């Protein structure tokens, strides 16, 4: 094609860091602790439920918003967990994963040049989604608290900067808890503070809660659905793929007040229309067993603790992992020359030389800010984690 026929609409958009690092891991036959997916199987009962649905010929188009049975089960789950009663008919939509849900929210509510606040480091689909809608990205950086040696110890919400950024121009604020990539978890007082900041605005909240069932150390997920003020202006996004170890199925859901959901469905019907039918039926059956998600925090906390204990003597400095299935570390104090590399180069070196892949946290910023922090995924079998630990202990 002659070059003059096409000028890219998105000159700043390239291949995602997850694709890049997974390809590099495959090239070097490395253990992939980069991209966030489990290497273990889901519950066979879930597979049986989907297989039963297929054999019952539940294989044709379902209703656009999702099958009624699954929307009803989602409504029951949300009420059970957070006390909020959503209408299955008007306020819940089944989506083709959380990323499609995020894009659909942005396209549904953001008009050209309207402002959208994101809190960096931020999941990499947020900013391209805003660009597609023609919105104006307002990036606010979390505070990376460092100790006297310059090691990042934790990330904190940037309340002063967020307060300055919110105005009558703000159309959407995108929040994420438990937070990818840092593992930080919003507390009840954080939701109260956000509610106070937006109470006199028309700002809408997009609350990405895909790791809602992975909160550690006897803490609990604070959903925007449980907040009496925020819930009135919020889209709540969750993921069956993350919860039930089936990320490749790409099935999630969105809850929102009826007026917001009506706008969401206007876009949803034309960017995906509907979602895999037998998997919806299988998930609806499987949601009869809440223990499948209520025990998930303990399950992943054990993996977090196993991974941390294994590489505690490597020289990595651990940041708090309060939730998700990710562990961030600062590598700047490693006693190797490579500790002076930037995050991207360090992750490439780690993959090619030690055969363990990680993700640079700098990739979660619009300007690739470097803090010597990388992210490991511990959603792996113990044998996989043990093999990775043995390799990382050579540092």
Helix run count: 14
Query: Radius of gyration over alpha carbons?
Result: 21 Å
CATH topology of the largest domain: Aspartate Aminotransferase, domain 2
Low-confidence stretches: none
- End-to-end Cα distance: 48 Å
Beta content comes to 15-25%
Describe the structure using short key phrases.
single chain; 2 domains; 395 residues; globular; alpha/beta; Aspartate Aminotransferase, domain 2; 15 strands; 14 helices; seven-stranded mixed beta sheet; four-stranded antiparallel beta sheet; Aspartate Aminotransferase, domain 1
Brief account:
The protein contains 14 helices and 15 strands. By secondary structure, the protein is α/β, with parallel strands linked by helices.
What can you see in these coordinates?
- By secondary structure, the protein is an alpha/beta fold.
- The chain folds into 2 domains: 3-42 and 295-392, Alpha-Beta Complex (Aspartate Aminotransferase, domain 1); 45-293, 3-Layer(aba) Sandwich (Aspartate Aminotransferase, domain 2), CATH 3.40.640.
- It is built from 14 helices and 15 strands.
- The chain has helices spanning 17-27, 44-55, 68-82, 97-109, 126-133, 159-165, 188-198, 240-243, 258-271, 277-286, 291-294, 296-310, 343-354, 382-392; strands at residues 31-32, 92-95, 115-120, 136-141, 143-146, 152-156, 170-176, 204-208, 234-239, 252-255, 317-318, 326-330, 356-357, 359-360, 373-377.
- Strands 2-10-9-8-7-3-4 form a 7-stranded mixed sheet, with helices on both faces. The protein has a 4-stranded antiparallel sheet with strand order 11-12-15-14. It has a two-stranded parallel ribbon with strand order 1-13.
- Helix 3 (68-82) runs parallel beside helix 10.
- The longest helix is centred in the first third of the chain and has 15 residues, at 68-82.
- The chain is globular, with a radius of gyration of 21 Å.
- The protein starts with 16 loop residues before the first helix and ends with a helix.
- The model has no long low-confidence stretch (mean pLDDT 95).
